[in-house]
Design a protein that fits this description.
By secondary structure, this protein is mainly alpha-helical. About 60% of the residues lie in helices and about 10% in strands. The protein has helices spanning about 5-10, 30-40, 75-80, 85-95, 100-120, 130-145, 150-160, 165-190, and strands spanning about 15-20, 25, 25-30, 45-50, 65-70. The chain has a 3-stranded parallel beta sheet with strand order 1-4-5. The protein has a two-stranded antiparallel ribbon with strand order 2-3. A hairpin with a 2-residue loop joins strand 2 and strand 3 (about 25-30).
Length: about 190
Amino acid sequence: HNKEEAKILIDEKTFDAAIIDFQIGGQSGIDIANMLKATCPQLKLYGYTGNPHILKNMGIHENLFHHILIKPTDEMTWKQILFLSDTYQKNVYRLAKNDAHIAHILYEEILKQQIETFNALSKPNLRSEYLHKLIHKTMGGASITADSQIHKLCRDILKKKATTSTHYDHLRLALKHSNQVLKDLIANTMIE
């Protein structure tokens, strides 16, 4: 509820993650997130905001959060974000017929594509035809991993339902989170 209560809770109990609203009773959720990260660096922080324009002003705070969601967010989306690694692993291993070597290759290829798309989204004045090809390929990777958030964002951009820079920022943040999940999965399925 506030910075002091968060400090007491983190001192008394162990947590894997915290969901932090950017505005908590007139206080800055970013201040609370900074305090929690300093106290407990391994804690995964999830930002939650009703203001999608805040993403433009995140700057140095972007790396503070494991993922940022925009209100309103349904329970299914929360579950998917919190259990994204499990979802990826289950779906990729199913496609790879439980072969760790094939799963590793799939993770690497999806990550490579997502990094290319992430980097392209960061460039102003990029040709939209090239960007749309990248987004289409990224949507294919999202189909493999069953990442419904990335798939929906890509689909909306490709169908021209979402063409503002805010939509691109949402996709960049989703890719940032997904890329970290993929890197962790790659590290855990090292090929000998």
